[in-house]
Specification:
33% of the residues lie in helices and 16% in strands. By secondary structure, the chain is α/β, with parallel strands linked by helices. α10 runs parallel beside α11 and α10 runs parallel beside α16. The longest helix has 18 residues. The structure holds zinc ion.
């Protein structure tokens, strides 16, 4: 019988390309080591909670939209519709004890069948699903975190390992300041708004000019002459009415920077000049706010993430102000229209990863892109002990 041939070492590869589904057996024909023939491999919620305390892993096999309405505490998302992918992403050892929970205890049996077929001999279904779990007063969290609009809008996030309902809730609770609503700020703002970052603060004192529209995709022809903050806010609210857009139609300076940055989880730098970046760097060091650096020139760009107190700061990288002409602005040197789109999107990517706490950030690295050669490079950055901004004494401590 099919099961016999799979005994010993038959399991999902944990890395590499997704395998073809191997789960074809029916429940009744699935005798396993742990469950005698005919026995249903399920346990009741009380026993499940007990097992969780001794290291078992609870898999919520419902779909993301269902999970958004609340889930058993400590359960990990592994929707049955993308089960193989979810299990691979969780990288579970075959010896793990796995408990599957669904709405009423039917789909979790299918999940257990698939898990056992893939070599997880200690897989059990939680009888009665979340319905019984809830009725018995066992802990359910995430209730009411996302409403129906949000559940639909962020569906593709809810399916992602590392994001899910918890990550989306984190994004919705985040506040990000965008310095500049121009070439870099445009794609960054659009993607952060679309992703559901709950509060975006647009800082810019410029008005939209015709020559901006070659790259500043936040604005449109009809906005020429309008404040960029007003034009940008209208576009962002149109894209995602569920988030808050605040506008600061002023030039960032030493007198307002701390007030503007106060309460921010992250700052995205879309400035086009060195002086503003120095201001952003020193304010972020004082306030302990991480910031995503981005710069473009002609066909090249750079991106990094600076986290105060952890690794280098911007001035470790650029200790001296450039001589006039050494760091020309886009207005002086020109820029390929798509380049700020590329760099601003990389900045938004870093921002989302940082807010979600996933992946390897660019902190301590400088990513450079050369669009003509289509070459990306990554160079290690080091903290300069003699840095005029973050050198000894460490920021926040008296001299
Ligand atoms: Zn420094």
């Amino acid at each position: 019988m099919a099961a016999a041939g799979r005994r010993g070492g038959h399991r999902l590869p944990l890395t590499g390309p997704a395998p073809a589904p191997v789960y074809t057996r029916r429940m009744a024909a699935t005798p396993t080591d742990s469950a005698p023939p005919g026995a249903v491999p399920e346990i009741d919620p009380a026993k499940a909670e007990q097992r969780l305390r001794s290291g078992a892993i609870l898999l919520d096999v419902r779909e993301p939209g269902e999970r958004a309405g609340g889930y058993a505490r400590a359960s990990l998302a592994a929707p049955l519709s993308a089960f193989d992918l979810a299990i691979q992403a969780l990288a579970l050892p075959p010896s793990a004890e796995l408990l599957a929970i669904c709405g009423t205890g039917v789909r979790s049996l299918q999940a257990v069948e698939r898990l056992r077929g893939a070599g997880f001999a200690r897989a059990y279904s939680v009888a009665g699903g979340l319905q019984r779990w809830r009725a018995e007063g066992r802990p359910v969290v995430g209730v009411g975190v996302l409403d129906a609009d949000e559940t639909e809008r962020y569906d593709r996030h809810l399916r992602l390992p590392g994001v899910g309902v918890e990550g989306q809730a984190r994004l919705l609770a985040s506040r990000v300041v965008l310095v500049g609503a121009g070439g870099l700020g445009s794609p960054a703002a659009l993607y952060l708004a679309a992703a559901g970052v709950g509060a975006l603060v647009l800082v810019d004192d410029d008005r939209v000019e015709r020559s901006n529209l070659q790259r500043q995709v936040l604005h449109e022809d009809a906005s020429i002459g309008e404040l960029k903050t007003a034009s940008g806010a209208r576009r962002l609210v149109g894209l995602n009415p569920g988030i808050r857009i605040e506008t600061v139609p002023a030039r960032l300076d030493a007198g307002n920077v701390e007030r503007v940055f106060a309460g921010a989880d992250l700052v995205v730098d879309g400035a086009d000049n060195f002086a503003t970046r120095l201001l952003v760097n020193s304010a972020c060091l004082r306030l302990g706010i991480p910031w995503v650096y981005g710069a473009v020139e002609r066909f090249r760009g750079q991106v990094s993430l600076f986290r105060p107190g952890q690794g280098p700061c911007y001035r470790c990288l650029f200790p001296d102000s450039p001589m006039p002409g050494d760091a020309p602005t886009c207005a002086e040197a020109g820029v390929l229209g798509v380049l700020p789109g590329l760099v601003g999107t990389l900045q938004a990517t870093e921002a989302l990863k940082h807010l979600l706490g996933i992946g390897a950030g660019l902190d301590g690295w400088l990513l450079s892109v050369d669009a003509l050669a289509m070459r990306f490079g990554k160079a290690r950055l080091h903290r300069d002990p003699a840095c005029p901004a973050c050198g000894a004494p460490p920021p926040g401590e008296p001299a």
